[in-house]
Amino acid sequence: MATSSFIYVLLMLHVCLSGQLDDNKIPSSLCVGQPGIPGSPGVHGSPGQPGRDGRDGRDAAPGEKGEKGDSGDKGDTGQRGLTGDRGDPGEKGERGQPGECAVAPKSAFSAKLSEDLTLPLSVGDAVRFDKITLNEQGDYNAETGRFTCKVPGVYYFAVHATVYRSSLQFDLMKNGHAVASYFQFYGNWPKPVSLTGGSLLHLVPGDQVWVQMALGKYNGFYTSSKTDSTFSGFLVYSDWKHSAVFA
């Protein structure tokens, strides 16, 4: 029985080997040769698909502080913002000290000849209008017949003379110089006549104005209980920049 099995195996082996030889094929297990020469490198393959993102690395230690950079260019001015809300009223301040009362500068006077004034006057004499009717600022001196300026500005002066018994000629003087001259002839009339003159003068503090006789024989100033000879003046406007000053 064992012999028959062995023979059967040999027959089957023969059949298999015969089939392969007929096909000119030698089993690789029966032919072991030397390794062949390495082949040429193959053609580069197509790029592979992108790989997945790697894991986040660990935090590195902080670097050193860098140097300060240059200042940038100035930017354009922005648009104006909206007006803010009105703030609350502040606290009431303390009451101030009482101030001085401001008043406009003043200067005015008027005087006339008294009835007992000694006449005639000499040439160059100042006519002393000795009876004061107004002189609140004290700028006119009845003893000298002269007005002295205290407030700089423009003044108006007027002289009204009653002429009787003689002709009259007088000058309106400023600091020793005649600024206006007046004359009235008297022709032995039974009643007095009048002579009136006026002038605007610009004065500075210290300037003086008065009426002075021009000719000795023309000194016909006259006054009585019914007629007067007067000298008046007042400030028209001052040179001070403000119309009011502290009194």
TrEMBL record:
Residue intervals of the C1q domain: 102-242
Keyword terms, alphabetized: Collagen, Extracellular matrix, Secreted, Signal
Composition bias type Basic and acidic residues, residue spans: 52-97
Gene3D superfamilies linked: 2.60.120.40
Superkingdom of origin organism: Eukaryota
SMART domains per UniProt: C1Q (SM00110)
Signal peptide, first to last residue: 1-18
PROSITE patterns referenced in this protein's UniProt entry, alphabetically: C1Q
Main location: secreted
Gene Ontology cellular component annotations, sorted alphabetically: collagen trimer
Compartments it resides in: Secreted, Extracellular space, Extracellular matrix
Region described as Disordered: spans on this chain: 32-103
Keyword Signal attached: yes
Annotated protein name in UniProt: C1q domain-containing protein
Species, as recorded: Mugilogobius chulae
Source species taxonomy: Eukaryota, Metazoa, Chordata, Craniata, Vertebrata
